[in-house]
Amino acid sequence: MTNVLAIVLAARFLGVNNFGLFSSLLAIVSILSKFSDFGIEPIIFREFSKNKNNFKLFNSSITLRLLLFVITIVVFNIIAPFLYLTTKEIILSNIIFLTIVFSSKMIVVRELLATPFKVNLKMHYPMTFQLLDNLILLGLIFFIPSAPDPVLYFVIIYSVSNVPGFFLMFYFLYKKFGYRYKFSLTQATWILKESLPLFGFVILTTVFLQIDVVILSYFKGNYDVGIYSAGVRLTMPLSIIPGAIVTTVFPILVKRLTDKANTEFITNLVIKLLFFIAFILAAVFSFGSKEIVTIIFGQEYSSSALSASILYWCQIFLFFTHYSLNVLIADNRQHYNFLYSIVQVTANLIFAFLLIPNYSFVGAAIAKLIASFVSFVFILYALNKFGFTPS
Known about the structure:
Layout: H1 2-37, H2 40-50, H3 55-79, H4 87-97, H5 99-102, H6 109-113, H7 115-119, H8 124-141, H9 150-160, H10 163-177, H11 188-219, H12 222-235, H13 240-258, H14 264-287, H15 289-297, H16 305-330, H17 335-385
Helix pairs in contact: 1-3, 1-4, 1-8, 1-9, 1-11, 1-12, 2-11, 2-13, 4-9, 8-10, 11-12, 11-17, 12-16, 12-17, 13-16, 14-16, 15-16, 16-17
């Protein structure tokens, strides 16, 4: 909630155009960050669920992600001049790149550090550190109006505010689990082999989440991106709901699958719960979307109400697939995750290019809704293929 409040205040202080510029650059960095991600975390989570003391594998995974981060940022700076980015945009992008390592918002290195806490059901530690990051950001945001360059100032505090929580993660990993980081690549080859199907999945999933912003920026400009991003920001906190449920259920699911026990009851229960929550949220928001957007972001963002409502209805399909994809990972069928992401991104790109030129941010939201539904149908097919039909 503090992160949402911080972004809302930043959007108000920056204005639609500057907020649109920040959102465009963040979308580009988010897509590129997944080359550092490589789909490693779900594999480490799965293996940790089997053996809670496998820190050799943990060290290799952290080292591997840090090396991939260095390669990613070097390649970006080589190709950036050919992407017609201005010098200021390149500088801002490089600052945002720091969030790949330090921030829990990018879900790369910090996500890995949270794995031992997840497995041992001690997620209150990473959540507390994330809250600290957000409170620091929230406090610094109030100085935006007095900053000579508001966008540059916001990008700096957006990145630097995550540093305290990052180091606290290492401290409490040592205190609670006796963990100390050691540079290691002993199991890097195995990790890359296991993660390869998920690498394509995480890249394409991030493309699905961010490419509409990039396309909208190309066809319409920063103002339309700013309007659309306000609606996107209202739906982003919702991912916490399926994420929290999956974090709780995943170790149990892995154990039951390892023991060849039946998982149908627990899976049906989770799916029903997620559907109910998503439907209620979408229905309630749709009835008062314009008033909610105006109260939160201000009158200048009021035109994002319709696109925000459409994005809320996407959550019905996205909540379901979030859990279902983790079922596939737990059962070592992660190649279906990659196929799912291909279907999702292909549908999104087709309809985004068809709708955005004429319908701007509303077209972007409709394209995402269509893609969410099409990929939902595919995941039903995948689940049914190995004998599970959700009730």
